[in-house]
């Protein structure tokens, strides 16, 4: 609806560029509105630092307001790339023009003006998931619903486009929440395209780490390959972070400490006592399976999605008959990663 109001979807570019300045296929320009730098300066009050709502190594994100045909202002997120991030700019615009899914952030347009590379996205009013996890304000059911939404988004990336897409840096900071606290995947600057849909999936070798949080998947450590199971591995870490108290990150622990600290002892106090035992067992089983050392032993993200939906159903059924008392978890879940800690930086 937002795109229709602005009249920006599938519109012709309005910025004049010579053929020597063009860096994108005509199809991308046809699918994605091209803004002038003047438009975006006006939308951000000349990139006022007070408008900054996020930042990374290679970019800053501003909250902007756009007008169309005299209509009211519409909030947007405007990502302005530094020179070192131009490769990520090219990657994001290439991928996001292909994606049409409610669990992936929508690209509204771009600006490719000499030394300015800027992308314009739909504005996600509730920010990123990491803030909400840090503040401890999410109920257990909402956390589970967010995980299901993320799994659906990844499932679409892996199987729903013309070519498989591997996100590669999935984490709370690359999951954004809209007005209704529904999640959307963002941060596609280092994502990788795989084989065409319905063709035999091939391993993709990369000569440098693409950038991630926490542990890279073990298959990457061993031979530098990227497959859908990379995303499944990082999704396993997301499941762990969603239930862990405060800013506890497993990457801060040694292997010995991992073995000595059951997950149940790290549960966020906000949701402790709110998780039905059967739901928890299914949830934690999926988490452990996603973190398997061998890629072939990990499930597909589609299988994870189905199991998490079942876990949510179990929680809802349990709540009907247990509305006035807390749940007790008697299990002791130990996670042994079988990998060495590996420091990485966003590329």
TrEMBL record:
Recorded GO MF terms: ATP binding; transmembrane receptor protein tyrosine kinase activity
Residues annotated as domain Protein kinase: 47-313
Amino-acid positions noted as binding ATP in the UniProt annotation, renumbered to this chain: 79
Entries under InterPro entries matching the protein: ANXUR1/2-like, Kinase-like_dom_sf, Prot_kinase_dom, Protein_kinase_ATP_BS, Ser-Thr/Tyr_kinase_cat_dom
A cellular component term, taken from the record's GO annotations: plasmodesma
Coiled coil segments of this chain: none
Keyword vocabulary terms for this entry: ATP-binding, Nucleotide-binding
PROSITE patterns found in the cross-reference section: PROTEIN_KINASE_ATP, PROTEIN_KINASE_DOM
PANTHER family registered for this protein in UniProt: OS07G0166700 PROTEIN, TYROSINE KINASE FAMILY PROTEIN
Name of this protein: Protein kinase domain-containing protein
Species of provenance: Phaseolus vulgaris
């Amino acid at each position: 609806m937002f795109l229709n109001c602005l009249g920006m979807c599938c519109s012709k570019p309005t910025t004049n560029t010579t053929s020597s300045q063009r860096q994108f296929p005509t199809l991308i320009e046809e699918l994605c509105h091209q803004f002038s730098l003047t438009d975006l300066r006006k939308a951000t009050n000349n990139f006022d630092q007070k408008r900054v709502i996020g930042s990374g190594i290679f970019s800053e994100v501003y909250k902007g307001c756009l007008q169309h045909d005299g209509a009211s202002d519409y909030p947007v997120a405007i990502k302005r790339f530094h020179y070192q991030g131009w490769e990520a700019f090219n990657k994001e615009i290439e991928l996001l023009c292909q994606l049409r899914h409610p669990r992936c952030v929508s690209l509204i347009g771009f600006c490719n003006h000499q030394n300015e590379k800027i992308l314009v996205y739909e504005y996600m009013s509730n920010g990123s998931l990491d803030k909400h996890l840090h503040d401890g304000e999410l109920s257990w059911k909402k956390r589970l619903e967010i995980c299901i939404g993320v799994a659906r988004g990844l499932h679409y990336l892996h199987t729903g486009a013309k070519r498989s897409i591997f996100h590669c840096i999935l984490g709370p900071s690359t999951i954004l929440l809209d007005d209704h606290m529904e999640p959307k995947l963002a941060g596609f600057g280092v994502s990788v395209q795989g084989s065409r849909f319905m063709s035999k999936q091939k391993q993709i070798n990369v000569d440098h780490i693409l950038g991630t949080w926490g542990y890279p998947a073990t298959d990457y450590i061993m031979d530098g390959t990227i497959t859908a199971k990379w995303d499944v591995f990082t999704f396993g870490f997301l499941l762990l972070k969603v239930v862990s108290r405060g800013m506890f990150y497993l990457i801060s622990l040694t292997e010995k400490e991992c073995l000595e600290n059951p997950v149940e002892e790290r549960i966020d106090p906000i949701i402790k006592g709110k998780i039905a035992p059967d739901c928890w067992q299914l949830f934690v089983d999926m988490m452990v399976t996603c973190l398997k050392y061998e890629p072939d032993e990990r499930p597909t993200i589609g299988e994870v999605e189905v199991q998490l939906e079942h876990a949510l159903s179990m929680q809802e059924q349990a709540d009907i008959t247990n509305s006035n008392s807390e749940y007790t978890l008697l299990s002791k879940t130990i996670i042994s990663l079988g990998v060495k800690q590996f420091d990485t930086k966003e590329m």
